[in-house]
Structures are given as structure tokens and as C-alpha cells.
């Protein structure tokens, strides 16, 4: 159906895709706090030329074949030294670890929570689904806010610090919950604050890393958000084996406090320019209207519906997260009876398999996506087509991850293969997912950053993810009990294959979709300038 809309055009490029041939010693201005060509004394070691810039985490962000090419906005990636970029990514990765780990740390403690509050395990799992749904809703607010005021605006209500403090308070309140309604309320409040780490963190990495090195940096960032859900149940299992479940949330409270301290002391503003400056030339009635248009959650919510490529990559990310949470949520209910396990810590050990897979995939998934981009730049004689990045994830989303799900589901369903088979399957699907997420997320940043909507597109992607995470968490137990673990995982695998086919169609037709969007944005920019001149 998508193919009917546009003809195949792999070589089509748009304004945001073009590289220009340049000498490797071309001087570029360094944009500092006082404007272009300032001394930027805060970062004396900042590189001044393309040959000096090393935006890759391990100081080889672009190969020799592509060093002679530069992005049109290359100067924005020269503002921070390599070591400063590493520090920023490290802080953001730690912050990204906290929100997802809070969503799964209680999975091995569900029976204990149910006993404390006099309810059922299904009700506790429903609270976890509500937590994930709240994460999806809050993404719609944090993204547009950071696009207007910055990732870390210089005022008392800094987005990262404010959300971090509220996340810290809500986590502590969860540990003190006297009853089930209070527990539900504090879990929702925690989720509403924590997503700023994910949305604004991804956007900040897009601010400082050029596209040829961006996926590698995002892979490290995503390692925090991906290993968190897998390691959370393991840590929770250790805690509830020896202590009360409330200790889980006190531990998370301490970690969040440390994260807020790191943000306050070491995290700089990363966005090169905010849309707040565009409002300065208008009178207050119109300025307020324009401000609402920019911070409205509808911007991020409706964005995928006007951009087919963004919708498809969001759906693919949602399919991956559906499978992640559908795999992690029922482990204690499926594997404990299957292998006759008796304690929470034994079930928690199974979560290490996907967690180690996510961590192992971090080292190669992002690099593979960036390598694919560089390979096609060379193949196209210096032109970067954003959709080329998506080629790197196709085998993993269409074949490897679904295959691992089928092996996992049917060996458990038929009770064959022993413990080793599901453990290996969980590990391999973790590795495969880390070949997919950096590619999908980098692509979204690549195509929307030139339009100043990087935070919004990240927010819309996370909406897809956590809507499907909430559905997976809420559906998996009753669906598994009704259909069996084999058939449920078969349906999940088919969902992945379907989303992978759509990603393949995006590789083919995406350039034409983006060209149409670029024309629309160009017309809108001209109209805004004319309106400003008339005002």
C-alpha cells in the first residue's frame, strides 16, 4: 500500500542529507556561549577543525574514507571536547538506567507486594502496566518543553534537575506507601517524572554527536535504558530474598539522589539554539499562542501521523519493547514452575541473560549502524541518505529476534531443552535488540533534527514504546495462561516480522516521504518569516 504512494528512489537526498566536499583542515567557528568565534573559555580544549574533532566515544567517529566530508551544521558538533562528550553520555546513561529499572525491579517481588496489600499478583502487575502507560503520556510533555527552553535551561526550574528531584521524592513516597491506592498513586507520579531522563537524554546526544557517530553514542545511552529492565528483577530478587520489598525503592531513591547530584554539577546545556528565541519578535498575545503551539503535547502525539517514516520506526520500536516486557514480566510465573525454582533470587538470575545480551549488544549494535552509514556515503560518492542506517537493523528485527522468541516460547511450551535453551535464546534476543534500537532512534534524530523537532520525535518514539510496554505487561499473563507460552511468543514474533517489513519499505520509499515533508516545512518557514515581518 505504501509503495503505491511513492516510486522507489534510493538515491534521493534532501537538504538534511547532503555532505559537501571539503578539505580536512577547513576551519569552522566554535559556537560558544557568547556567539560564534568566541573563546568559549569553559571548554578550552574544544576542537577547532574537523581534523581535530573526535566525536566518537573511542576517538574514531568517522573512517578515513569519509573524513573529507562534513555536515552542513558541523560546527554545532564541535562545541565539546571528546572527553566532555564521554562524560555527558556517561551521566545520561546512568540517568536512563533509573526509570526503566523502577518499572521491573518489583517483578520478582510481586507475590510479596500482593501479600502486603492483600491483593492479587494480577493487580500488582496492573500497577506496573499503569506505570508504563504513565511514562508514555509524560513523554508528550518533556520533549516539547526541552525544545523550547533547552535540555538544561539556566533558571531555577531546570528540566533535568526538577524532574530528577520529583522522581526522587516519588520513589521515596512509594517506599512508604501505607496501602494499595497510595502505592498506585506514587508509582504514577514516579513514572511521570522519570521519562525526562529518556526523552531529553536522547535529544541531548543528538545535539552533540554528528550522524556518522550518533548511533554508537546512542547505543551506550540505550544500554542504560535496556539493561535497567533486565537487571531490575535480579536486584529485586536479591532484596526480597533477604529483606522487605520496600528496600527496593529505598535503593532506587539513593541512586536517584546521586543522579540529581551528577546532573547539577556536571551536565551542561547541549542544544545549540532553542525555539524560545523565535518568540522574541512577537507581541504577547501572539507570543503566548505560539508558545502553546510549541509546547503542546499534541505536537509529539500527532507527529507520526503526518510522517509515515516516523510512524513506522515508532511502531518497530514499540514491537521490540512489547517483546521485551512480554518476555520479562512472566518469568517468575513461567520458569519457576517449569524448572521447580523456589526463591525469588533464583528467578532473578534468569533476568541476567537478556541483561547481558543488551550489554553485549551495546558494544557492536551502534557501531554497526554507523558503519553502515559510512559505507553507503562512500558508495553514493559523498551523499548521506538517512534511510541507509535502517538497513543495519533489518536482519535482526525480521529474523534473529523473532527466531529467538520462537525458540524460547516453544521449548518452554513443550518442556524440552532444559534451562540452557531459554537462557541462550534470551541472551541472543537481547543482543539482536541492541542492533535495532540505536538504528531506529538515530534515524528519527537524523530526519527531524534539521527541523528543530528532535526532542519531539524522540518523545513520539517513546510513546510508541511505552504504550506497547504497558500492553505487553498487562496482557502477557492472561494471554499466556489462555494460549500457552508457545503461541503467545509466535504472535509476538509475527508482530516483529510485520514491523520489520514496514522498516524495509521505509528504506525504499522514505526519501520521497521526507522530500514531501521538507517542502512543507520550507513553506511553513517562509510563511512564519513573512508574518514576523508584517508584525
Description of the molecule:
It is built from 18 helices and four strands. Helices cover 71% and strands 1% of the residues. It has one domain (76-534): MFS general substrate transporter like domains (Growth Hormone, Chain: A, Up-down Bundle), CATH 1.20.1250.20. α4 runs parallel beside α6, α5 runs antiparallel to α6 and α6 crosses α17 (454-483). The chain is globular, with a radius of gyration of 23 Å. The strands form two sheets. The protein has a two-stranded antiparallel ribbon with strand order 1-4. Strands 2-3 form a two-stranded antiparallel sheet. It starts with a helix and ends with a helix. With 535 residues, it is mainly α.
Query: Which second-level CATH architecture applies?
Result: Up-down Bundle
What fraction of residues sit in β-strands? Answer: under 5%
Topology order in helix (H) and strand (E) letters: HEEEEHHHHHHHHHHHHHHHHH
Number of separate helices: 18
**CATH homologous superfamily label:** MFS general substrate transporter like domains
Silhouette: globular
Largest sheet: 2 strands, antiparallel
> How large, in whole angstroms, is the Cα Rg?
23 Å
Distance between the termini: 44 Å
Output the CATH topology: Growth Hormone, Chain: A
Order the strands across the largest sheet as they lie in space: 1-4
The domain tally reads 1
Mean pLDDT: 80
Structural class: mainly alpha
Q: Which regions are unreliable across 5 or more consecutive residues at pLDDT < 50?
A: 1-67, 153-157
Number of strands: 4
Amino acid at each position: 500500500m505504501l509503495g503505491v504512494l511513492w516510486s522507489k528512489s534510493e538515491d534521493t537526498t534532501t537538504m538534511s542529507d547532503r555532505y559537501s566536499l571539503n578539505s580536512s583542515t577547513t576551519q569552522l567557528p566554535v559556537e560558544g556561549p557568547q556567539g560564534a568565534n568566541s573563546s568559549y573559555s569553559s571548554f578550552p580544549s574544544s576542537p577547532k577543525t574537523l581534523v581535530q574533532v573526535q566525536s566518537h566515544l573511542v576517538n574514531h567517529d568517522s573512517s578515513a574514507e569519509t573524513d573529507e566530508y562534513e555536515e552542513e551544521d558541523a560546527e554545532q558538533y564541535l562545541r565539546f571536547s571528546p572527553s566532555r562528550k564521554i562524560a555527558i553520555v556517561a551521566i545520561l546513561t546512568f540517568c536512563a538506567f533509573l526509570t526503566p529499572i523502577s518499572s521491573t525491579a518489583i517483578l520478582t517481588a510481586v507475590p510479596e507486594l500482593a501479600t502486603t496489600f492483600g491483593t492479587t499478583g494480577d493487580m500488582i502487575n496492573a500497577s506496573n502496566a499503569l506505570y508504563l502507560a504513565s511514562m508514555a503520556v509524560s513523554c508528550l510533555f518533556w520533549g516539547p518543553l526541552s525544545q523550547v527552553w533547552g535540555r538544561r535551561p539556566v533558571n531555577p526550574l531546570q528540566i533535568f534537575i526538577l524532574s530528577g528531584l520529583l522522581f526522587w521524592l516519588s520513589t521515596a513516597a512509594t517506599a512508604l506507601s501505607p496501602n494499595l491506592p497510595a502505592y498506585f498513586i506514587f508509582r504514577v507520579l514516579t513514572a511521570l517524572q522519570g521519562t525526562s531522563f529518556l526523552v531529553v537524554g536522547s535529544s541531548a546526544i543528538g545535539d552533540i554527536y554528528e550522524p556518522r557517530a550518533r548511533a554508537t553514542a546512542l547505543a551506550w545511552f540505550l544500554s542504560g535504558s535496556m539493561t535497567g529492565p533486565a537487571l531490575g528483577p535480579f536486584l529485586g530478587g536479591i532484596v526480597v530474598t533477604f529483606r522487605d520489598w520496600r528496600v527496593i525503592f529505598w535503593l532506587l531513591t539513593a541512586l536517584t539522589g546521586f543522579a540529581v547530584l551528577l546532573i547539577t554539577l556536571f551536565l551542561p546545556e547541549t542544544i545549540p539554539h532553542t525555539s524560545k528565541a523565535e518568540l522574541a519578535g512577537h507581541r504577547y498575545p501572539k507570543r503566548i499562542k505560539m508558545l502553546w503551539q510549541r509546547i503542546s503535547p499534541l505536537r509529539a502525539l500527532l507527529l507520526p501521523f503526518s510522517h509515515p517514516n516516523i510512524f513506522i520506526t515508532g511502531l518497530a520500536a514499540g514491537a521490540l519493547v512489547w517483546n521485551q516486557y512480554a518476555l520479562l514480566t512472566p518469568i517468575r510465573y513461567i520458569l519457576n514452575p517449569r524448572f521447580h525454582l523456589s526463591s525469588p533470587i533464583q528467578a532473578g538470575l534468569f533476568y541476567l541473560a537478556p541483561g547481558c545480551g543488551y550489554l553485549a549488544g551495546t558494544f557492536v549494535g551502534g557501531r554497526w549502524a554507523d558503519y553502515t552509514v559510512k559505507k553507503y556515503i562512500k558508495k553514493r560518492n559523498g551523499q548521506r541518505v538517512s534511510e541507509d542506517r535502517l538497513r543495519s537493523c533489518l536482519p535482526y528485527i525480521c529474523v534473529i529476534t523473532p527466531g529467538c522468541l520462537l525458540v524460547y516460547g516453544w521449548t518452554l511450551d513443550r518442556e524440552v531443552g532444559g534451562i540452557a535453551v531459554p537462557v541462550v535464546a534470551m541472551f541472543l534476543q537481547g543482543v539482536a535488540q541492541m542492533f535495532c534500537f540505536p538504528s531506529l532512534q538515530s534515524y528519527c534524530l537524523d530526519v527531524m533534527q534539521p527541523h528543530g523537532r528532535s526532542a519531539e520525535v524522540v518523545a513520539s518514539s517513546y510513546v510508541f514504546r511505552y504504550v506497547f510496554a504497558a500492553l505487553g505487561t498487562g496482557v502477557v499473563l492472561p494471554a499466556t495462561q489462555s494460549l500457552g507460552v508457545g503461541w503467545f511468543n509466535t504472535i509476538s514474533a509475527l508482530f516483529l516480522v510485520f514491523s520489520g517489513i514496514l522498516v524495509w519499505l521505509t528504506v525504499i520509499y522514505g526519501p520521497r516521504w521526507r522530500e514531501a515533508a521538507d517542502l512543507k516545512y520550507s513553506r511553513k518557514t517562509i510563511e512564519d518569516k513573512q508574518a514576523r515581518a508584517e508584525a
